[in-house]
Specification:
Strand content: under 5%
Radius of gyration: 20 Å
Number of helices: 15
Distance between the termini: 25 Å
Order of helices and strands: HHHHHHHHHHHHHHH
Number of strands: 0
Amino acid sequence: MSNTKEKIFTSQFFLIFGALFFTSFVMYVLMSPITEYTTNMGASASVAGLASGIYVIGGLISLIYSGQALQKWGWRKTAYVFLGLHLVVCLLYFISNNIPMLLLVRFLHGIGMGAGGAAIITIATPILPAKRFGEAMGYFLTGTPLAVGFGPIVGDYLIDNFGATSCFLVATVFAVLALVCILFVQIKQPQTEDYDTKSQYSGIKKFIEPNAIPISIVASLCSFGYVGIISFSGVYAHELNLVEAFSLFFIIYSIILIIARPLGGKIQDKFGNWLVTIVPITLQSIGVFLIALYPSFVSVIICAVCTGVGFGTFYSIANAMVTKNAPEERHSYAIATYLLCTDIALGFGPAFLGLFATTGNYGNLFLVSAIISIFALPLSIVVLKRME
């Protein structure tokens, strides 16, 4: 069967895409409002940061066990349980009127989002056509940048004009939509004869897929350029009087990403992993170097394009790599391992990069993030040679 005869855009694709987009949108529509909501309750900036960070911790904990849960409970049950938790927690925001309660809700929300997201991506793998897997994965994972592009805008607008309750309401509606989508997906979990997690795998393999670790580390290093931008672009923009430029950043980033991810996947399917690994990592580093050393309206726009083609595209490329490089019965573990590694970088990267920020000079922070990103380049060459 030729590649052109394998359909990507089926009803099942749109359902699983909807589940990913709606779930991701909940995360990003609450990202900024939660910090403001916490400080409005009288919390310090560090506690407001904890409210954001504890969400990541909950997600990381759930990802450690999500691969095992998907294999033991089955894909369907795992998705229902954690996306159900994701919805229930959205409702709990309405009664979170003190700091301890809010921190608990954020932690539980992270658990639901972490394992729920892993379940959605795992369920998608047999839905995507095998001969166009990279391209299809690129289209599928555009659900996340769409949420990144529009979630924060909607969240900021809602809290500024209608208050935090409106944010919680919208998050709840989208959590319901995500659950509805997954209920209608025809989940095709591969049946492996005589497969028993306890008997075949022990030690670290009961939780993660070791073969997925090298490329996951490469993606994590590359992500530091993106981490610096998503976490500190606001204060950097005010410092340099580039608020207008950075306000366009994520819109441009999302548009480029929607174009670049499927194109990158198509190149991956046809030419292999080298081109779609080296180019994105290089561009990501160049983009962040530009805004660190030569900040201007033009360099911010260039950086947005570089980030879209860079980490934004490589994120889906690497996801396809770890999935295709793992045995079919280990796909859930490979995906969980990949998300765990990248989420560690995305979750704790801001705290690490913050060590290099000085009052009135956040350029140092972006310079460090660019240097870390470029470290992914030589490591990726070693990893790709070993994968051949």
